[in-house]
Specification:
By secondary structure, the protein is an alpha/beta fold. The protein folds into three domains: 99 residues, no CATH class; 139 residues; 113 residues, Rossmann fold (3-Layer(aba) Sandwich), CATH 3.40.50. The protein has 23 helices and seven strands. The strands form two sheets. A four-stranded parallel β-sheet has the order 2-1-3-4, sandwiched between helices. It has a three-stranded parallel β-sheet with strand order 6-5-7. The longest helix is centred in the middle third of the chain and has 20 residues.
Amino acid sequence: MAREGSLEAPTRHPLGQDSPEFWDEENLFVELERVFDICHGCRRCVSLCGSFPTLFDLVDESDTFEVDGVDKKDYWKVVDDCFLCDLCYLTKCPYVPPHEWNVDFPHLMLRAKAVKFKKGETKTRDRLITSTDALGKFASIPVITQTVNAVNSNPLTRKLLDKTLGIHADALLPKYDSNTLVKRDKKRHPAEHTVEATDTTTGKVALFATCYGNYNEPQIGEDLIKVLEHNGLQVQLVQNTQCCGMPKLELGDLDAVTRAKDANIKILAQLVDDGWDIITPVPSCTLMFKQELPLMFPDDSDVIKVQQAMFDPFEYLMLRHKAGKLNTDFKQPLGKISYHVACHQRVQRIGMKTRDVLQLIPDTEVLPIERCSGHDGTYTFKSEHHDTAMKICKPVVNKVKQQEADAYTSDCAMAGHHIEAGLADGSKPAHPVSLLRKAYNI
């Protein structure tokens, strides 16, 4: 008899995209029905995202009130509502491996997205908005940046985008910056430091800019470099990289993920060999290298090498602090901070390192909000999903209002702006790295 739930730590099986069974649609639907039936009997994840309410409504409205009464073509509605936040796997599901029922809902949804993509049934819009590198390179051309930002903020053009592309007219689209992080860094004069290694860090940090950190909010990367150098670390910006692959992963375009991996891992693995630790300013990008690529390519030694040298910024700073190497000479208190804990940071299973670092600052109180913002990089932009995304975000927005803090923040800058859209009061989020720089007064 199957046991109810599991007290063992969750583990993950490799994705298995090289197996013919992975791409077999008939086999996929057998597994979807099996897992959906387990989810229907449990229903613990109903509050997490749109996938589970969609599934349970389909079941409750069927003739049998069971999964076998749901039309198989409606399974895709559940798949489309999953944005791979991974929280069901990490925080709710009692049947994840090593439980014998072996439920990995996010990676089953990823498999379904991959099959759908390979069948050519993915919308042109979704291919476009997940091409973050190409969009960033184009939109950051100086003569084009202002036009793109103007179009993205104009109510009339936004209604046109809604009708033609399916980009919701009310979704807060990211702005582009022609003065990219790569351009800014060329003007930097790296600080001279005697490198001090610890048991867990080399003291040499290679910053993987990410598409968002390079093209949309390069100030975050600049602030991070300043903070790292202020802590006696040697810092370089990694050159000639591509998108980490997370947007294409969420689309199901695994070939594009593989191409990005081949380009990036070669560069990053060489840096690791040369004694550099690696940091990205975006939790989803960090997670891509820490979890998703190793699960896709478990036998690639360079992928594993990069995984072991990849850190969240505040994880890294706390490791330095534990070794007595963090500069705690803070000049400015931050007061009360509403802190949204990003899903893809939680999935890294490192604990609330951002909170821990910020609370080292005198007269600073950090109030964590452990709830998904519902942004998902592209999910909230889509006309058919925006209202659901805002509904998911509403508890976070309400908590920020209740806390009446001096600032609100999230390690995921896009989640921060999604909260901004929900607040609709003119206030702007401050990134934790920027808050830390402010506290240092540098």
